[in-house]
Amino acid sequence: MQEEIKSGTTPEPTENRDVLKEYQTSVIQLDDLCESYGIDQGELAIFTTYQNIVRNNKNLENIKGDLVRYDHLIDPQFRVGFGGTDFNRENVDQLIEGGKDIYIHYMDDVFNSSSFDVEGLTQGIKSEIVWAIVVNKTEKKIIVVFRGSVNLQDFVTDASFAMKDCDLPGYVSAANKDDKQGFGKVHLGFYNSIFEKTKVGPNGSDKSKGEEIIGMLRNDFFDKDEFKGYSFIVTGHSLGASLSTLFAFRCACLDEPLPNVLNVSFASPFVGNDEFRKHFQALEMKGKIRHLRVSNYQDIVPLGLPCSPTGEGYKHVGMNIRLYSGDDLLSPNYRRFYPKLGSFLDGARNTMQNSWSLLPVIFLPNHFCLEYDIRLNNKETKKELSKLTLENLYNDKSITGWP
Q1: How far is C-alpha 136 from the geometric centre of its chain's CA atoms?
Q2: Distance CA 87, CA 236 (A)
Q3: What domains does the chain contain, in order, with CATH numbers?
Q4: What are 6-20's pLDDT values in tens digits?
Q5: Model pTM above 0.85
């Protein structure tokens, strides 16, 4: 120190030297890690960018910035299936206008095909579902969102239309397996995606996505006084719609300390059989769940395959609002359907309305988010739907057939 003073130099503060040393050590460790896994600087830059995109607790301004900054990285299949660049930016703008306290609390795509693993490879066919928890403090809502079909594994899941017993596991530990209850039969691919054990994640856990989400909802929200009085919504489109239905059912049927759940699904495929629907309706009658199932006329996905390979029939659940394009002057703006209890004629009518034989032309674009947005925001449709409330529809015995 005395030599530094004598030479006329200013000694560097100890704090600064420690920070510099820590930084240099980190750089060396990062270089060693890259060398160990064969990752070059270009791949590291991609990984860093990816981590920045998916980091948690993003507000709407962050999301809009990502859509602008990383637009060139968005896969074309996302652009088509999810409405394109302008559509997504406009939606985020509308949300920003609706309130500042809206943010993504957590997003999970750790096993998604676009995820970057430690070997610099994508997960491909082994990918799993993508979901997020969104918080809207302005309107006091906790929202669980499931993403729709966009990659190969998603479509493999959709095509796995065999059925299996709907046994709902507990979320605490594998020891709860003996406490499972049967709730009819459901789509094999959808069930496995939400309720089967996953691959071992970064935290060493392999519990199902359903268990993981419920645990987070309890610990981060519904066990805390700060979020008392918040409503609980589960939503999704296409594959995400079917997953949302199964997850919402799981939350409603086993007396979890969660609020009554509102399930809003778009373009949902069939989920379960008639016995599953009876259990679902029993929860609706108790007021523990409400399901608004929105579908587009001539969207092939909600029509689906009406039975499993063994001949077991699938049945839709929930209060269905079917949207029409408005191109045909003889068609209404929307129709409302519900599987009325004890009515054979009602069931037969709904089956016919959902029949493939009534689909003169199959338009894949009718399944896309953009087309759903266009039909929902049709001036006349919006005006008519604004006169309805979901609770009033459920309370109308002429619609439900409930006692």
Answers
A1: 16
A2: 17
A3: 59-400 (3.40.50.1820)
A4: 555 555 566 667 777
A5: no
